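Students often ask why we bother predicting the structure of a whole assembly rather than each chain alone. The short answer is interfaces. A chain on its own may look different once its partners are present, and contacts between molecules only exist in the joint model. In this exercise we take two input lines together and write out one structure for the complete complex. Read the inputs first and try to guess which parts will touch.
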Amino acid sequence: MSDRETIEALIGRVSLGDRAAFAALYDATSGALFAVCLRVLKNRAEAEDTLQDVYLRIWNKAGRYAATGHSPMTWLITVARNLAIDRLRARRDGGVDLDAAGEIAESRPGPEAAAIAASEGRRIADCFDELPQDRAAAVRAAYLDGASYQFLAERHGVPLNTMRTWLRRSLIRLRECLSR
Amino acid sequence: MSDLEHIDDDDSALAAEYVLRLLDAEAAAEVEARLVAEPALRARVAFWEAEFAPMAEALAPVAPPAALRSRLMAEIAGESAARTAPRGPARERPRRPTRDPAQRPWSWFVLPPLTAAAAAFALVFFTTGQIGPPPEPAFRAEIASEDGSLRIAAGLVHDDNSLRVVRAAGAAPAGRVLELWVIAEGAEAPVSLGVLPEEAESRLTLAPEIAALIPGGVLAVSDEPPGGSPTGAPTGTVRAVGPFSET
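Now the answer. The structure tokens for the assembled complex follow.
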């Protein structure tokens, strides 16, 4: 059984209330989902709290997975990232911690790009290469760090609407590249 | 897929912005309303979710703390018991509130992991009938302190709302007593089940509304001043925690 089939089978059993399957799913995927939460929140306690919510949501919503048509990791990651961003946006300052934002990649992704290329994600890594570096970094910051238009505009020193236009154009270019 | 053949740039970008959580609340709500009715837009959202996810997959995994796993499994066990419990008053399961860390029920204590030794003790304990004569408890919990020195098993008998308790190992520290607590599913705070007498085996008679908290709840034990906690909440160290399961 491939990894994907295994994770998918576990999600199926979880949807039937199988707690052993849920524990196995947690053991197989919690490292990946915790990494997502940590990257968005940059705060260990909040990431731990969020991870608890993530897996409780997986426990309760596993029955909906099949209808999404996603691969299992895409679904799990999407659940985790959305809850982490909810939490990020609920902070009093409403967003990215600029002091901690040193982690936001200004330049090429680096080692992660190799990992992406090695997995099913080859396409997005290649398509990022076709964008100007700072545009690719902005898309990555939005996805991985929960950066808002406000944050990105301030970081680049441009008006909000300029950043919006830049990003929408970049996304259209990405879409064209990915559909080739 | 026919609904992606004609690529609408605006909708593609909008779907990506939606997935990236770049839209403001109003714009996101508009997209959500459209998603209900427009399969093509749903397909675009799914497209971006799938295309972006490998970025997250490429992050180096980070192991969460073991205590998180224990808490999670205990909470799942509590929910499962609540789903399957046939008896007791009809309880509406509270909707999980948005987590404010200050109100998090588990901030009371860290759940000690149930070690293999403690789990084995529990199995032997109940099957040898040490808890006393029938009737069989409807819900039971077996808890142990992290170092295994304190081990307590408790079983609720529905007929008379009595909690049979066996202190299988350990005791209260000198000059203190042990008090049992139940944390009901979704509750903010523990409710006292009573102070344990000195005998190793005892029976606590519970008020019906307290017995009702046990299905889907969690058992905890703390050490308290003589006579029990003066405040109605644990004041001493919580030494062991574990879920009640349906037998």
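Check your guess against this: The helical segments of chain B are 2-5, 9-19, 25-37, 39-57, 66-84, 116-127, 208-211.
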